[in-house]
Fold:
Amino acid sequence: MSQKIIVQKYGGTSVKSPERIKAVASRIRSYTEKGYSVVVVVSAMGKTTDVLIDLAKELSDNPSKREMDMLLSTGEQVSIALLAIALHEAGIDAISYTGSQIRMMTDGNFSNAKIANISTDKIMKSLSENKVVIVAGFQGIDEDDNITTLGRGGSDTSAVALAAVLGTRDCEIYTDVDGVYTADPRMIPATRKLKEISYDEMLELARLGAGVLHSRSVEFAKKFNIRLHVRSSFSFEEGTIVMPMEEMVEKFIISGITAKQDEAKVTIRHIPDKPGISAKLFNALGEYKIYVNMIVQSTGHDNRASISFTVKKEDLKKTIEICTELNKEIGGSAVEAKENIAIVSAVGVGMLSSYGVAGKMFGVLSEQNINIEMISTSEIGISCVIDSMYAELAAKVLHKAFIEAN
Ligand code: ADP
Ligand code: ASP
Ligand code: MG
Structure:
C-alpha cells in the first residue's frame, strides 16, 4: 500500500448517470496513478433519495423512521456497486462496502443519526491489497444492527469521519459547483468563489442554510484538523479550502450570505413571566428530539411574556402538539405558527473586529421595506427572520451591500 491516503466524496449529481460514473472512475484512476491510496464515499445517484421519499409518501403520511432509513440507504448501495464496476472496467482494482460492512457505528436516532465510531480494519486491509475502497455515504448501523442515516446531505460527514479515523488531512468533496461561494450561485448570479474559508465561518454558513456542506462534516473537519477541498467533479479547477482561521491569507468582514427556508416560527403569548417556564417548554421539545434554532422572549409585562422560536418545518406539527399540551399546564395563549418564513444571515470572521454590521444589515432590509420578525446573533453571524416572499430579495440586497460593494 502506498503511504498517502486521500478520501474523496462524490455527491449525487457527480454520479447521476453511467457517463458521470465513468468520469468519476477516470478521476480516481488519475489519483491511483499518482500513488495515492484512495477511499471514495458516494451519494445516491442524482435525485434518487427524493424519489425514494416520494415513493414512501405514496404509501403513508407517517412512515416508520426505521423503515425510511432502510429504504433511503439503498440509494447509496446502488452507487457504490456501479462505481466499483466502472473502476474494474477501467482496470482498477476496487471494492465497495456499505456502512454496516465497515461497522460505521451510529446512535439509534433514525434519519439524523450521529456517528459514534468506525472500524478501519476492513478498509486498511483492502487498501493494503492495493484496492480502491468505495464506501456508501449517509449510512451507518446502530448497536442493534438497524440501518441508520445521517440526515440529508450526510455523505459529506461520512467522508470527513473516514478521513479522521484513517488519519489523513486530505479530504476532497466533489460536487456540482467548483467551490464555496459568497452565496448560493443558484440564487445570486453575482456571487463570488472563495479560495479559502475558515472552519468557523463554514460551520455557521452550513448551519444557516448554505447547502453545499453538511454542517456536521465541518464540525468533524475542525475537530480533527482536516482540510476540506470543495471542488467540482465537472472540471479540474481548484476549489475552496476549508481550513483553520490562522492559516488563512484572505479574511473578509462578511464572507457569505444565506437564506434558509426550511424552518417555521412558533409563538406562545401570555405565558407566566417566572423562572422555570422556558426550561419546561424547551425540555419538552428536547425530549422529542426537536431541534430549536432561534429563540426570542419578550420582556415581561403584567407578569406575562411571549416567546417565539423556530423549528424545522417537518417538526412543526409535533411542536404544536407538545406546546398545546404544555399550555394546559402553564396557561399561555393559543400556539401561533407561521410557516412562510425565511432566515437570512450574514456571516464573517471580520465581524469579530468591526462595528456597525448589525445596523447596516437592518438598514439594508428596511430600505426594501422588509420587516424583521426575529433577530439572533453569534460572534460571527447575524440572522433575521423575515417573510419568505422576501427571501431572495433580501439575500440579493445584502449580498450587494456587504460583498459586491467591497
Ligand atoms: P452534492 O449532491 O454534490 O452533495 P449539494 O446539492 O448537496 O450537492 O450541494 C451543492 C449545491 O449547494 C450547489 O449546487 C449550490 O446550489 C448549493 N449551495 C448553497 N449555498 C452555496 C454556497 N454558498 N456555495 C456553493 N454552493 C452553494
Ligand atoms: N443521498 C443523501 C441525500 O440526498 C445523502 C447525500 O447526498 O449526502 O441527502
Ligand atoms: Mg450535499
